Amino acid sequence: MNLGICSITRAELRGAVEGLQLAWELGYRRVNVQLDSRCAVEILQRHQDHDHRHTAVSHRFQELMQRDWEVSLTHIYREGNKCADYIASRGHQMPLGYSMFPTTDTTLVSWILYDTLGLSEPRLVMNEG
């Protein structure tokens, strides 16, 4: 989905909501939402009641989670989800709104297999403080 001009955090949040809605419509009842934005994960876990620029999308996410299904939300490093990274990089070239990727996109198919096998690249992570 190409959202046009928005922040990375906004894109992550909208992706989480749209992905959950799609999973529900497709009949999935056990879903693990994995986001590579720690900020987005924290916003969705906070249950904000005050006026915040992401309040509406956060509330929508919470409404979806309250349905009769199992949903978990976790933070992962970008390197652990090459498929999503590839789709995001291609999204800038797509028209606004929803787009379908062709099943003949061999790069996408390769990244799906890569992620399914749990493969990842090493990353040096330094703790702050």
Automatic annotation (TrEMBL):
CDD domains: RNase_H_like. Residues 7-90 form the RNase H type-1 domain. One of its GO terms (molecular function) is nucleic acid binding. It comes from the Eukaryota. InterPro entries: RNase_H-like (IPR053151), RNase_H-like_dom_plant (IPR044730), RNaseH-like_sf (IPR012337), RNaseH_domain (IPR002156), RNaseH_sf (IPR036397). Signal peptide: none annotated. This is RNase H type-1 domain-containing protein.
